[in-house]
Amino acid sequence: MLDDLTAAELRILATIDSEGSFSAAAAKLGLTQSAVSHSVRGTERKVGAVLFERGRQGARPTAAGERAIKHGRGVLRLMAVLQEDTRAASGAELAARLRIAAFRSAAAQLLPPALTRLRARYPQLAVDVSIVRDVGGGTAQEVVAGRADIAIVNLPHRLPASTGLVGGTLLEEPYVLIHPPGHPDPRSLPVIDWTENCSASTKEWFAAQDWLPSATINVADDTVLLSMVAHGLGMAVVPRSTAADRADVVREDLGAGAPRRTVGYVAAPELARSTAVRALVRELRSLS
Questions:
Q1: Are 269 and 250 within one domain?
Q2: What is the residue-wise DSSP string for 186-209?
Q3: How far is CA 155 from CA 58, 77, 173, 277, in A?
Q4: Is residue 197 part of a domain?
Q5: In the predicted model, is pLDDT for residue 200 greater than 70?
Q6: Is the domain of 177 the same as that of 254?
C-alpha cells in the first residue's frame, strides 16, 4: 500500500537520484549499501514498479522512478513545511531553510534588499541561493527537480503546464539603452548582447529597430556585458535592473514603445503557501 511508505524510504530514493548510485547514497545517509538496496526493493514492492536501472555507471531512475522521486521530494518538503509552519503559528521563531533559485541579475539586484528585510523578521531563517542561467528550463526546472523551493523567473517560463508549478508576477520593468559615458555618438557603437537577454517579444522589438545593428559582440554573462560597455566597446539594450546602480554606464530610456520584462516566481503547489515562501514573495513585491 502507498500509505505504508515512510519518510526514510522517500529520502533514500531522493538521495540515490542526487548522488547517482546506491553506494554514494549510503555514504551520504550514513547507511550500508545493503540497507539502501533493501529499502529500495521494499519501496518497489509497495508501489509495484521498478524505480532504478542498476549498472556499472551507477543507478538511474526509470520513468516510474522519476515520478516517485518527484512526488517523494514534494512529500518530504511538505512534511518539513508542516513542522515549520505549525511551530510558527504557535508563536515560535520560524527556523526553516528556504532554497531559492534565481538568474544572476535577479539574485544581484532583487534578492539582497528582500532578504535583508526577511531576515529582520525571521532571524533564524536559513537561506540557500543558487544561480541558474535563464536558458532551457532555467530556474523553474530547479523547483521541478526538487532542488529549490521557489524560483525567480522571467515570465512566461518555458516549462509545460503539466509540471504543475504555481506562481505570479513580482515586477515589470522596461528595457533601456546603456552606453559608455562621454561618448559623442553612442548609437554608432556596436551592440553587445548576452545569451539570456531576449524573450520572443523582445526579439520582435529588436528586429524592428532600424537604428539597432545586429549584435557584433555576444557574451555569456551580463556582468561581462556591463564591463565591456563601461570600457567603451559597445552599447546594449538590457532590462533596467541589470544596470541599476552602475555609475560607469549611462542609462537611456527607450520611450513608450520599449520592450518590457516581467519577473515572477514559481513554486510547487505544496510549498507556495508556506510561511517562508509567502514572506519572500511579499518582500520582493514591495520592491517594485
A1: no
A2: GGGSPEEEETTS--HHHHHHHHH-
A3: 37, 25, 12, 18
A4: yes
A5: no
A6: yes
Tens of pLDDT along 236-273? Answer: 999 998 888 789 999 999 988 889 989 999 998 888 98
The verdict on residue 209 lying in a domain is yes
Q: Is 184 part of a structural domain of the chain?
A: yes
List, for residues 10-19, the tens digit of each pLDDT value.
999 999 999 9
How do residues 45-91 score in pLDDT, each as one tens digit? Answer: 999 999 999 888 889 999 999 999 988 988 888 888 888 888 878 88
CB 252 within 8 A of CB 240: no
Residues 181, 102 share a domain: no
How many CB atoms sit inside 10 A of residue 230's CB? 18
> Is residue 241 one of the residues assigned to a domain?
yes
CA distance 44 to 40: 6
Tally the domains of the chain.
3
Q: State the Cα–Cα distance between residues 138 and 152, nearest whole angstrom.
A: 10
Residue 131 and residue 243 in one domain: no
Residue 6 belongs to a domain with what CATH number? 1.10.10.10
User: Which residues span the domain enclosing 177?
Assistant: 173-262
Burial 203-215 (b: 16+ CB within 10 A, else e): eebbeeeeeeeeb
- 0.70 cut: is pTM over it? yes
Widest CA span of the chain, in angstroms?
74
Q: Are 125 and 95 in contact (CB under 8 A)?
A: yes
Instruction: Count other Cβ atoms within 10 Å, centred on residue 184.
Output: 5
Smallest CA-to-CA distance from 39 within 18, 60, 8, 75 is with 8
Do 236 and 193 have their domain in common? yes
Amino acid at 79: M
